[in-house]
Design goal:
Catalytic activity: an aldehyde + NAD(+) + H2O = a carboxylate + NADH + 2 H(+)
EC number: 1.2.1.3
Strand content: 15-25%
InterPro entries: Ald_DH/histidinol_DH, Ald_DH_C, Ald_DH_CS_CYS, Ald_DH_N, Aldehyde_DH_dom, LUC3-like
Number of helices: 15
Strand order of the largest sheet: 14-15-16-13-12-17-18
Keywords: Oxidoreductase
Helix content: 25-40%
Radius of gyration: 23 Å
CATH class of the largest domain: Alpha Beta
Bound molecules: nicotinamide-adenine-dinucleotide
Family: Belongs to the aldehyde dehydrogenase family.
């Protein structure tokens, strides 16, 4: 039976006159009709959220955390259904789609146990100041397509545990699993607290303008992020922007290649490179460059080859949509046009159907090439060489991006020294970039504004209010 999808407003399912269909990236088959929310739907959702906020905002942290446990149960009880929908719309293999579900469960349970508490900020014989955290109001979560559930869920659970109401807008490239998740969650929270609307740039822009919305939590490209921020300024909305990265990965001369090569391959090609913190530029010490490159090519050809069967246990997949497919193809063609050395991959039409591109490795393209300077967000990786620590750090630090980075070395003091000088929101040592629920995650420079996750992330979903007690 064909699944059906609805906007969820005030806990009710709502269809729409206008629908759109997503193209399955593996096969290019058209998927199911998905209702596009109207401006009237959005107004209704804001009104429902504002009404719900009056009582929801007065619930205790403990009450909200108990409900998050039930929210996690929705993922557990409907894991197969959600995973199969997610796999179809995103092109992920079954095991990759399952990762989205499992991580969403873990993320939800993390916030069911970790939240902001009141804290004494000052105390002496005369005064005591207690900081308390109060919710903002209605949050709109505007989401990308690469990890549809995890990246929506972090905004949703952060909003809910802090006492906000949340309206989630999935990417129009991957709306289905998020819509089904909100539909299946009905009845757990009071109506109006958790809603979903499907739409694209127009709906997103309306969210950033609406005076009844207190905060936008946005994840996406830098260009859209700048538009979101400019638009939010009109109503002084709080705004968190999680934007693109162009992560440098530095491999030192003494790195343990048996461990480093598989880790770098995973950093670059997990989910076909469609990860905000994928390793996107690999700098390898000249003394081990040739051996590293040989071993990386072998590892990538062995572990990240195209496997069309979604049941195959592959961490690699097609590019998730035609727009991104064309962008990555354009980067491969630019490498070919300029005569850069492609050591594996490089075909731009390896299969008759689907947005497939093979894992592609380019040896020593120029530092100013598009592949090195722009975020590729797909399965193509430049491998560059370095000799001098100051020089590689200068090349790694870009003026326009600073999301993540990674360093591989057997000398932890050297790795830490380099990590501390890398201008990025997170640096992973002897490990590919993988966010941790308990740790703040955000980009510096153009890669973001603020951040999410961990205790510090929750602070962006609240006002901090101080209660000043006078002592006699
Ligand atoms: P995008 O900017 O095209 O779209 C993101 C969302 O914004 C979508 O829901 C879209 O409908 C909406 N939108 C578009 N125009 C809008 C407007 N004017 N106002 C409000 N909303 C609007 O990004 P994308 O292609 O979906 O996502 C891929 C990008 O996201 C990559 O650059 C990737 O690095 C980045 N990303 C960053 C993180 C992070 O945490 N920093 C995580 C995942 C992805």
């Amino acid at each position: 039976m064909q699944p059906k999808f609805y906007n969820v407003i005030n806990d009710e399912l709502r269809g729409a006159e206008k629908t759109h269909q997503v193209t399955d990236p593996r096969t290019e088959e058209e998927l199911w009709p998905c209702p596009t929310a109207t401006i009237a739907d959005f107004e209704d959702a804001v009104a429902a959220a504002q009404a719900a906020f009056k009582t929801w905002s007065r619930t205790t942290v403990a009450e909200r955390q108990a409900l998050l446990v039930k929210m996690a149960d929705v993922f557990k009880e409907h894991a197969e259904e959600l995973s199969s929908i997610l796999a179809r719309e995103s092109g992920k293999s079954k095991i990759m789609a399952d990762i989205d579900i499992r991580a969403s469960i873990a993320q939800t349970l993390y916030y069911s146990q970790n939240a902001l508490q009141d804290e004494i900020q000052y105390e002496d014989n005369h005064a005591k100041v207690v900081a308390t955290h109060i919710p903002l109001g209605v949050v709109c979560a505007i989401c990308p397509w690469n990890f549809p559930l995890i990246l929506s869920n972090v905004k949703v659970v952060s909003s809910l545990v802090t006492g906000n109401c949340v309206i989630v807008k999935p990417s129009p490239f991957t709306p289905y699993a998020v819509m089904k998740w909100v539909e299946l969650s009905r009845g757990i929270l009071p109506p109006g607290v958790f809603q979903v609307l499907n739409g694209g740039a127009e709906l997103g822009a309306q969210m950033t303008l609406h005076p009844g919305v207190a905060k936008i939590s946005f994840t996406g490209t830098i260009a859209t992020g700048k538009r979101v921020m400019a638009s939010c300024a009109k109503t002084l909305k709080k705004v968190t922007l999680e934007l693109a990265g162009n992560d440098a990965c530095i491999v030192c001369a003494d790195a343990d290649l048996a461990k480093t090569v598989p880790a770098v391959a995973s950093g670059g090609f997990f989910n076909a490179g469609q990860v905000c913190v994928a390793s996107k530029r690999i700098y390898v010490h000249e003394s081990i460059y040739d051996e590293f490159l040989d071993r990386l090519v072998q590892e990538v050809e062995r572990s990240y080859a195209i496997q069309e069967d979604p049941a195959a246990p592959s961490l690699f997949g097609p590019v998730s949509n035609k727009l991104q497919f064309d962008t990555v193809k354009g980067i491969i063609e630019d490498c070919k046009k300029n005569g850069y050395k492609i050591v594996t991959g490089g075909e731009t039409q390896p299969r008759k159907k689907g947005f497939w591109l093979p894992p592609t490795i380019v040896s020593n393209p120029p530092e100013d090439s598009i592949l090195v300077q722009e975020e590729q967000f797909g399965p193509i990786l430049p491998i560059l060489s370095w000799t001098d620590e100051d020089d590689v750090i200068a090349r790694a630090n870009l003026a326009n991006a600073g999301l993540g980075a990674s360093v591989y070395s057997s000398d932890l003091a050297q790795a830490e020294r380099i990590a501390r000088r890398l201008e990025a929101g997170g640096v992973w040592i002897n490990h590919p970039e993988r966010p941790n629920f308990g740790a703040f995650f955000g980009g510096i420079k153009d890669s973001g504004f603020g951040g999410e996750m961990g205790r510090q992330g929750l602070l962006s979903y609240v006002y901090t209010k101080c209660l000043h007690f006078k002592k006699d």
